[in-house]
Amino acid sequence: MTSVANFWAVIPAGGAGTRLWPLSRAGAPKFLHDLTGSGRSLLQATVDRLDPIAEGRVLVVTGANHRDAVAVQLPDLSDEHLIAEPSPRDSMAAIGLAAALLEREDPDAVMGSFAADHVILDDEAFAACVRDAVAAAAEGWLVTLGITPTHPATGFGYIHVGAPIDGVPAHHVLEFVEKPSVSVATQYVESGSYSWNAGMFVVKPTVLLDLLAESDPDFAADLRSIAQGGADAMAEIWPTLPKIALDHAVAEPAAAAGRVAVVPAGFDWEDVGDFASLGDLLDPADSGALTVLGDESLIQQSQASGLVIPASGRVIAVIGLDDIVVVDTPDALLVTTRERAQDVKAIVAALREAGRTDLV
Amino acid sequence: MTSVANFWAVIPAGGAGTRLWPLSRAGAPKFLHDLTGSGRSLLQATVDRLDPIAEGRVLVVTGANHRDAVAVQLPDLSDEHLIAEPSPRDSMAAIGLAAALLEREDPDAVMGSFAADHVILDDEAFAACVRDAVAAAAEGWLVTLGITPTHPATGFGYIHVGAPIDGVPAHHVLEFVEKPSVSVATQYVESGSYSWNAGMFVVKPTVLLDLLAESDPDFAADLRSIAQGGADAMAEIWPTLPKIALDHAVAEPAAAAGRVAVVPAGFDWEDVGDFASLGDLLDPADSGALTVLGDESLIQQSQASGLVIPASGRVIAVIGLDDIVVVDTPDALLVTTRERAQDVKAIVAALREAGRTDLV
């Protein structure tokens, strides 16, 4: 795996992962956890995946309250490449600031933005897609990676893929579409011309900021001012930035203008949104066994299937339960089923309402 | 509720309660726990129930390793009335030693032996039965309390009840029978002439020991020697005593000889053998709700029924599970169903086999 000249990996490390409570917390969100049993957190695995391509040119954008935890997990990351957002302003501000900083640091940079909490196991296939995306981005395209859908998921947005683009290894993006209904998703998957939108973008920093400037010139100017002005500018300007996703601020209008390209990505990709998808990830063959994420010696079981996460060091006995989910942490315990994995979110809301912010 | 002259309550406090793991442990067995949410352990509730009848004439026999825990739970119990068995020798030795001690302390004593880990909620009805049993015991009978069966249980022995005895408020016992099959149990219950054997005996100490002497004179003599000889005799003789249940050693042969009486007992009685019966006890109407034994504020739930015991202080979320059993302790967690409550025993055996004696 060889590096790609001038390629910078930008890793927005945000998102609470509420449906992964009580493992994921506001103070220790999903990306800080090892959800694959690899011994590396999702954030660390994301850096591991990008490092060979970026040769150490990695920039992480995270919330100020997670800055220290990120620094501990990524000891090789220099201070100036670990950007702490004073407050959450959504993805356009986070990735746009990275673009503004890179525009100054490396005028030839091509940046690729990849969330810190996704799981991709095939590093080689990923690198090949990134390389193609960089080639297209170098020609001025805003490039996204379009994940080949494996089922009619309703939890993701989709990318309507058009014809190949002459001269670059990518296709036109006809349109980004919001999360569909099951019937629409089924049509998308059967058509063969839709990909999942995993929020991965490869683009030259200046192209990204100039696209933003077309719809919101102040926003783009503010990001460049922060990059130039340092800490004082950050403190003053950041809180005034619009809270908007990069998809809405830039990608959708740019697609409408025919300026977005997509590289088809065939590798397995998981955003591990809840314990059901985590269970699928850890036991893709659906073996009917009880999957243990953690120290298996802590588990005593009899006729059980599902997922158990022993994260408190205590012994856990599970008897006679199918598709169970047990997540055991030092101060909170979740017992549910894979079918009900989505409802964990409501428990977190209830705890917050009950004033148990120490637990969420 | 008035006291009964010369009545002594003897409380054998033993039994591991393996099927109530991880709440019940070898080091903290069932009788030391509050299983009703009353704020009193089963042992304390047993003493509370007997104290008004016995006016403080209470004697507890327990294992040496539980002596200190019993003393903490029963601060009013004097040292000489808290008897520590150096090793477990089954119920004949435990109750027989109490009889030998009482024979010396109070020649007019009538003793009643009641296990420390049973649940009886109607103290008045219980006291009325004990009073009748004492009246019969004073006439020289070995008296048992026969629980009116509410269903064809196969987990208890049964008492075949005969005709009323002239002059005392009790019936003849025709026979003690072992745990029956379901079909036999059904016949017993339908016949109306069988009671559950809850192992409750009321008898004059000398009568009990003399009955024992008829089948095993050395055993009876040894118990009397320990009562006379104190600590040295205990250390020397106790380990040589036969391991046999009082039922086999005395009650069954005495019944065959027509010397056992039974007082019909209509009060609700539970031996709380496992989490299914504990669930029944705590939610007799089977309300379909999630029963919480402990601090309800620790529980977050959505569409759940069954039993949850938050005994570690941690928050527990239960979502979308019916008839679930969750028992949360500081070092071990059990997740099962009421239907599988019996299988907890196998987990304890597996843990012991795995060398985790710290947990069982």
UniProtKB/TrEMBL annotation, chains A, B:
One function term, GO molecular function aspect: mannose-1-phosphate guanylyltransferase (GTP) activity
One Pfam family hit: ManC_GMP_beta-helix
A biological process from GO: GDP-mannose biosynthetic process
SUPFAM superfamilies: Guanosine diphospho-D-mannose pyrophosphorylase/mannose-6-phosphate isomerase linker domain, Nucleotide-diphospho-sugar transferases
Keyword Zinc-finger belongs to the record: no
Superkingdom field: Bacteria
Annotated ranges, domain MannoseP isomerase/GMP-like beta-helix: 305-351
Leader peptide range in chain numbering: none
Alphabetic keyword roster: Nucleotidyltransferase, Transferase
Residue ranges occupied by any Nucleotidyl transferase domain in the UniProt entry: 9-280
Matches recorded under PANTHER family: MANNOSE-1-PHOSPHATE GUANYLYLTRANSFERASE
Name used for this protein in its record: Mannose-1-phosphate guanylyltransferase
Species this protein is from: Nocardioides cavernaquae
